[in-house]
Amino acid sequence: MLVMCSYVLFLLMALLAGISLCRRSDLHWLARLNAIILVPALFLLTVGIFVGAVWANQSWGRYWGWDPKETCALITMLIYAVPVHRTAFRGFFARPRRLQWYLLVAIVSVLFTYFGANYLLPGLHSYA
Fold first, then answer.
1. pTM > 0.85
2. What's the maximum distance between 2 C-alpha atoms anywhere in the chain?
């Protein structure tokens, strides 16, 4: 549930980024809104991964198994953690449009984690 809520927020950010990039005028408020939404979305994903690891320990006796779904979720978390650390990447996110492009491209990792890891890659979480 936590991870699905974060996925919905990531999808909302990609939608807002797409709207912002399609407009001719520079909409700084959409970039600020995306930056605000990014923090709880990343928090929900991180907590969801942590809770999933605790559940995996109870079920399978190990916290982390490097299953493709687990690995894709970790990669997605790291991708979305980059814009949160803007001070470290000051030059990259100096303009709001760069953040919007980044968020629009980053949604691919969410889609692959949800669909690709479930249907294409073999593992404990796979339907393939």
1. yes
2. 54
